Amino acid sequence: MGRFKEFLFVLIALSGLVSPSFAQEQEILGAGASFPFLLYSKMFDIYGREYGVKVNYQAIGSGGGIRQLINKTVDFGGSDVVMGEEDLKAAGASVIHVPICAGAIVITYNLPGNPEVRLTPDAVADIYLGRVRKWNDPRIVSSNQGVPIPDLPLTVIHRSDGSGTTFIFSDYLSKVSRDWHATVGRGTALNWPTGLGAKGNTGVAGLVRQTPGSVGYVELAYALRSNMAFGSVKNRKGRFVRPSIASTSAAMSIDLPSDMMVSLTDTEAPEGYPLAGFTWVLAYKEQAYQNRTEAKARELVRLFWWMTHEGQKYAEPMEYVPLSKGAGAKAEALVRSVTYDGRGLLR
Predict the structure, then answer these.
(1) What number does CATH give the domain 27-102+277-344?
(2) Region for 200 from its dihedrals, namely left if φ exceeds 0, alpha if ψ lies in -120 to 50, beta otherwise
(3) Mean pLDDT along residues 15-27
(4) Where are the domains of the chain?
């Protein structure tokens, strides 16, 4: 009996020595975009229960996710924005952008009866440039024959915080309006020409709801879950397209580059909604850095593979847009390209 107790003590001691290392290998750290947070929470919960790997993801915004990846304090970053030249240079090594899903930005408003308003690119740009001050402005009325457009002052609502949502919105405006491109430009945070600022989708939605005649922009998933009114936008092919899962998916029907560092705004796809964009997970292509183990790198690649394959079925039920067949194939190739000390990690 004494020998058994001694043996048991040794086992407990040994397990105490190895378990912290084991636990460390079984936890993956990520941070970044808030847009996909609900989907990621669902995915990571299911993945953890199925594979015993805890994924700790903090929704701190796209810029924060990029900074933490560059600082190597997380295993992966999340972003609704492609890394710019300065960030790529600061990273010091190749970073892959693996698309996980797509989303759309909708133009929401507070009007009597909340009819479906049709908006041209010029009208959207002029509204946010402060040139359209009333709802019955000819730039709105001309594309809404038969729609009850009221004689109301128009109040512009925009994001006050930095966000990938603002980047997608301003990226679109920079493409369709020379004046916007020249005076405001694209970015996660802007010097807005007009309007009232509110933090996050929740803040914008709340301010729109309490301000008659207001207009704002929020993510499609949020608008659908919150039962908000939103309009159709004229795309490059001249069609007024209502934002939806289908029209956002259609926006991906373009020639996608192998690195997937691509903008979907102002899509050339005939049925595509023009204010759409991907959200990506970012990671170093070569994983042998800062004493990272091959086991940790392999777990990260397995997670990315699952997110771009089995995990895709959770997107649409949560109002996110799953990857198209073409986007999925490009995502798979990117995951396969990740190496550890030059060796591929997927087997």
Answers:
(1) 3.40.190.10
(2) left
(3) 47
(4) 27-102+277-344, 104-276
CATH topology for 104-276 is: D-Maltodextrin-Binding Protein; domain 2 (3.40.190)
Q: Which tens digits make up the pLDDT trace of 65-108?
A: 999 999 999 999 999 999 999 999 999 999 999 999 999 999 99
pLDDT digits (tens, 9 = 90+) for 213-258: 999 999 998 898 889 999 999 999 999 999 999 999 999 999 999 9
Q: In what order do the strands lie in the sheet with 240-241?
A: 118-119, 232-234, 240-241
List pLDDT tens digits, range 39-74.
999 999 999 999 999 999 999 989 899 999 999 999
pTM for this model (two decimals): 0.87
Q: Locate 29 and state its tokens.
A: 């750290």
